[in-house]
Amino acid sequence: MARKTLRVSKIKEGTVIDHVTSGYALDVLKILGIAGRWDGVVTIAMNVPSQKLGRKDIVKVEGRELSAEEVNKIALIAPSATINIIRGYKVVNKQRVQIPAVIKGTIKCANPACISNSNEPVQPTFYVKCREPLILECHYCGRLMEKSDVLEQFLAKASSA
Ligand SMILES: Nc1ncnc2c1ncn2[C@@H]1O[C@H](COP(=O)(O)OP(=O)(O)OP(=O)(O)O)[C@@H](O)[C@H]1O
Ligand SMILES: [Mg+2]
Ligand SMILES: [Zn+2]
Predict the structure, then answer these.
(1) Three-state DSSP string of 29-85
(2) Upstream peptide bond of 133 is cis (omega within 30 degrees of 0)
(3) In this structure, are residues 74 and 89 in contact, taking their beta carbons and an 8 Å threshold?
(4) pTM, 2 dp
(5) Bridge partner list, 128
(6) Ligand 1 atom 15 nearest Cα
(7) Judging by beta carbons within 10 Å of its beta carbon (0-12, 13-18, 19+), is residue 97 exposed, middle or buried?
(8) For ligand 1, is residue 89 a contact (CB within 6 Å)?
(9) By CB count within 10 A, which of 80, 81, 102, 120 is most buried?
């Protein structure tokens, strides 16, 4: 009899990023900087049926835990994601990502003339107008940014790093 689910080997230590907005698994990998060579097992599932989301992506990375900065970035592109820390094959910690009301530092303003892009000592600051779909407003110039703008920055950074 055919099995209903595909069997994939479990990871011993690492991170499972579950409930990723479908279509964004590869962007999550790029944010983590492991689009290319990586020693550990990486498992990606795309468009998996989900009770909560209808469809979701999942990213599993062996031998890796995420920094706060990485979690903040993932939140912006996959606001329903859960970060599960795996140790000894078990989930030992589960954290839902969060988008704060104000974002400082993680993103640059898309307006080249914005004071936050000058040599003035001001930290880029955005107000979260909407979480899904993502809309951010620059505190300094009022420029609105959406998920595609944010993603473009993350990917440009990942490939130049
Ligand atoms: N050792 C492991 N290796 C690979 N994936 C794992 C491992 N342990 C758990 N997972 C995966 O991590 C995710 C969270 O596991 P958990 O057992 O908490 O599932 P769950 O009860 O469905 O969680 P949730 O309520 O967040 O949907 C699932 O996608 C599960 O398949
Ligand atoms: Mg589940
Ligand atoms: Zn601005």
Answers:
(1) HHHCCCCCCCCCCEEEEEEEEECCCEEEEEEEEECCCCCHHHHHHHHHHCCCCEEEE
(2) yes
(3) no
(4) 0.92
(5) 136
(6) 91
(7) buried
(8) yes
(9) 81
Domains of the chain: 14-96 (3.30.70.140), 102-160 (2.30.30.20)
Return all residues near 2 (Cβ < 8 A) that are at least 6 apart: none
8 Cβ below 6 A of ligand 1: no
Closest ligand 1 atom to residue 18 Cα is 29
Q: Please, are residues 81 and 74 in contact by the beta-carbon 8 Å criterion?
A: yes
The encoded tokens of residue 156 equal 């440009």
